[in-house]
Amino acid sequence: MISSGKIGIIAGNDQFPILVARSARKMGLKVIAVGFPDET
After folding, report:
1. Rounded Cα gap, residues 23 and 39, in angstroms
2. What is the number of alpha carbons within 13 Å of residue 9 lying toward its C-beta?
3. 1-34: per-residue pLDDT in tens?
């Protein structure tokens, strides 16, 4: 259950983190993400 209205993502390779972030934003959540150079 998400009650804070926020979701944190530690991004990895490929499209999965982007898909999760987009879906979360559509649900009205604030997305906080961290990516790493040459990895995301």
Report:
1. 21
2. 21
3. 556 899 999 987 888 889 999 999 999 999 999 9
3-state secondary structure of 32: strand
What domain range includes position 23?
1-40
Q: Report CA 1 to chain centroid distance, whole Å.
A: 16
The total number of structural domains in the chain stands at 1
**Consecutive H or E run containing 6:** strand 6-10
The Cα–Cα gap between 18 and 3 comes to 22
Q: How confident is the model at residue 23, as a pLDDT?
A: 97
